[in-house]
Every structure is written in structure tokens, then in C-alpha cells.
Amino acid sequence: MRRVQILAAVIAVAALASAVRGQSPDFDRLRRQQARTDELWREASVGYMRMEKIAYRSRAGDLDIPAFVFQPLKHRAAGRRPALVWVHEDIRGHLYEHYIPYIREATARGYVVIAPEYRGSIGYGQAFYDAIDYGGREVDDVVTAVDVLRARYPAVDAGRIGIIGWSHGGLIALLSIFRNPNTFDAAAAIVPVTNLIDRLDRKGVERQRALIDPANRFGGPPAQHPEVYKERSPLFQIDRLRIPLLVHVARNDEDVNIEEDMPLVEALRAEKPRLAVTKVYDRPVGGHTFDRRVNMRTWQPENTPEQQDSWNRVWRFLSRALRQPEPLQ
């Protein structure tokens, strides 16, 4: 794992460790780190894409959501562009620098990208951190990004908007399309969290509740409120799928274990074979992060066979689903 990913992991792990201990992280330090991250994104955008940092009111009505917006360098003389809502991993994360080569690739392929820093993300102060609502209003924060694209970015084709997310962001992506079947046109979820009941049982109920529900918005553990956990678990919402969906998982994932992800994969294959495209990677280098490993000096992907295969499949899938021609090689 490269240094940029180690730094990102250290920041996220520190925030999670504080949550488990019932302590508050150093919010001033996290704000400074976020300012450095923003500057790095600006530097990495030069010559590749146009970047801006915006904020918008969540449709939940209680919070302003920071977001990165990336657009292709070249303006189109005619026609509109497809867009992607890009959902970062980690319940206490942000738009990590390891996404740089992939967002560059997305804009090079003609996509406008909006990356919401949904509630609970680090780097935006204590009130934002404490507003965490796992599988709840954070989904509203992300879905509101579509309203922003339609209202503020006339170059975006409102009929060609996709969503892509990783890990916890994959859970958000799945819940977004299940709860809003007419909002998105395609979705991709990579190593997504799928079943909170199973996850808490495997990883420890009290520890996981301290991480995902410090304000007790769920009302208690799964044994007391199973319906709440099911409503926030994509596995139990598959019947709501109405658009093309791609899901990639890894057998050596030590975060979202294959035992959690395979029921989703198998259910999609059985119940939604015409809409869902799934791929199970055996033992890719990196496990949970196999598709996001980059060289921090060059911002180039490590390009392991599984990483290359996953991204090739993602781009082909989005090209078909969002009617965006593949670039000439």
C-alpha cells in the first residue's frame, strides 16, 4: 500500500478509534488535513480537469454538504455530458487522494463527476461529524447531488446520471438507487457493505454500534430493532432494483467479508439477471482496496491484473448503461 493510502488509512482509523472509545477526534487537525487534501486535489486537476469545491443543502433539510465537482477540460460545442455521483468509502472518511487517477479517467471519458462529502465525513468540524446517520440521511445527502447537477450544471444530461461507491460508499450507492428508482440510470458498487445484521454479528455488536450509530438513531441493537437494520441493508432491498447495476467483490476482503457479500451477489444473479452484472475476484492484491491502489508520486494505478480487469469492466458497463461511447484507443 502506497504512502498516500497509508496516510488516508491512518486518518480514518484514528477517527474510528476515537468513536469506539467514545472520544472526540482532534477536529482542528482534521480541518487542516482537509485543507491540504483540497489543495492536493486542485494541483492534481491541473491539465486534466476543472475542479471546484461547492456546498449544497441536503434534501434532509438540516445540513449543508460539501462536494467536489470535476468537469472535462474541453467544453462541448453541442450535446450534454453524462455524470457520475462518486461516493467515497469509510463512515469517517472523505474523498481520498487515491481516487485521483480514476476521476481523471472519468473526466477524460467525458463524465462530469460530483463527489459529496456526506454527513459523518472527517474534516468539516464536530457538528458535521456528529450528524452521522448510517444508511439514513447520509443517503439523502448523496442523492441531493443529482438535484445539484440538474440545477447548476446545464452541460449535464439529466437522463444519463450514474452513481458509483466503494465499501460503505457502495452501501450508500445501493440504498440510493433502491430508494430512488427514477433518479439514477446506472450504478456500480465495489466491495459494498450489504447486511448490517450479519456484519454486527460477525464483528461485534457493541463495537460496531459505537462506530455506525453513536447517537443511537437505530434505537438499539439488531435483536431489538431488526426492521431498522434491514431497511439500511441493501441485501433486503434487491426487489427494488430497476436500473443496470454492477457489483464487484473479493474473496480475500478482510473488511466486507465474502460471507457478507456473496448473499447479495447470489440474490442479484437469481432475481435480477437482466439488470445486474457481478464479478467475484478470487484473491486480488490488496483485498478490500484491490481496485484503488496507486503510486503517490505519479498518481498511476498499480495495475495489477485484477485492478485493471475491474476498472475495464466498470468503464465498459458505464459506457453501455449511460450511452457514453468508449474513447478511441
Which descriptors apply to this entry?
alpha/beta, eight-stranded mixed beta sheet, single chain, 329 residues, Rossmann fold, disordered N terminus, 10 strands, 11 helices, two-stranded antiparallel ribbon, 40% helix, globular
Mean model confidence by pLDDT: 93
The fraction of residues in strands falls at 15-25%
Biggest sheet, spatial arrangement of strands = 1-2-4-3-5-6-7-8
Described by strand count, sense and barrel closure, the largest sheet is: 8 strands, mixed
Parts with pLDDT < 50 across at least 5 consecutive residues: 1-10
CATH class: Alpha Beta
Under CATH, the homologous superfamily reads: Alpha/Beta hydrolase fold, catalytic domain
CA-atom Rg in angstroms: 18 Å
Number of helices: 11
Task: List the SSEs and their pairings.
Blueprint: H1 3-21, H2 27-45, E1 49-57, E2 64-72, E3 81-87, H3 100-108, E4 112-116, H4 126-130, H5 137-152, E5 156-166, H6 168-179, E6 186-190, H7 196-203, H8 205-212, H9 226-231, E7 245-250, H10 258-271, E8 276-281, E9 294-295, E10 300-301, H11 305-321
Parallel strand pairs: 3-4, 3-5, 5-6, 6-7, 7-8
Antiparallel strand pairs: 1-2, 2-4, 9-10
Helix pairs in contact: 1-8, 5-6, 7-8
